[in-house]
Amino acid sequence: MFRCDRLHFQLWPERRARESSNEELSVNVTVKNGGQRAGKEVVQLYVSDLVASLSPAGRKLKRFAKIYLEPGQSRTLTFQLSHDDLSFIGANNKPVVEPGEFEVTIAELKDRFVVK
Question: Does the structure show a pLDDT above 90 at 12?
Answer without folding.
Answer: no
